[in-house]
Amino acid sequence: MNLRFRLRPLLLGAPLAALAAAVLCACGAADGLSTGEKAPPVSVQPRPEPLWSAWSGSSPSAPGAETASKQPPPEPLEGLDDLGPGGLAEADARELLRADTRLRTLADRPMIKKPGQPGIRPPVLADLTGDGRREMLVAIDVESGRSVLAVYYEKRGKVYPILFTAGRRLVVETLGTDLLVRSPCADGGEQAVRYHWDGTRMSTVSDVKSYQKPGHAAEEEDGSSPSSPSGDSRGSGARP
């Protein structure tokens, strides 16, 4: 065979191999990463964290809330001495309630440790403003089955009420630094209100109402599901 014809396939194969290598390199870089470059970290989205887990139950949702955009900034509570170095972490929740004109009539309610009876829930501290300091959340359950929630913020020794809301069987959770308040509605739906610190107060950023699927409410009422034996309880927490 002529040497010219024997070399021709080899010469043609070289550019084809180079082209294939280029295509493979292009596919490898399609995600914007070069060889040896580390992938960027995946950000973890916050999940709701209950603040009063005993009150979370299995039928959550939230009360309506006023839009805070046109309201004047909150005024500091009067009658309180300047907080010590411990701030709200060492404050007496009852003293805050007595200084709050909207809640002072509830300040002498008994402290409670579980749902099902009226009283003041154990105060909870959570950083809702993102400044590294924790705000105090106080919730009060009353005889009618409704609950009141107040959030207090400390600045330069003064205490400011930055959220006040109420509803039935409140379930309160944190979502990152946001606050999620849920409560059942009278028409069988559930409402979830999300609050975010706007530099002045906790303002409403979303207010979502949803409805249960048919048959779900009946399952919760008798405490059993179709796949479980009759009478098996689905939850051990009591409801207020």
TrEMBL record:
Assigned keywords, A-Z: Signal
Domain of life: Bacteria
Cited PROSITE patterns: PROKAR_LIPOPROTEIN
Entry protein name: Lipoprotein
Gene source species: Streptomyces aurantiacus JA 4570
Leader peptide range in chain numbering: 1-20
Region (Disordered): 35-85, 204-240
Biased composition (Low complexity): 52-65, 224-240
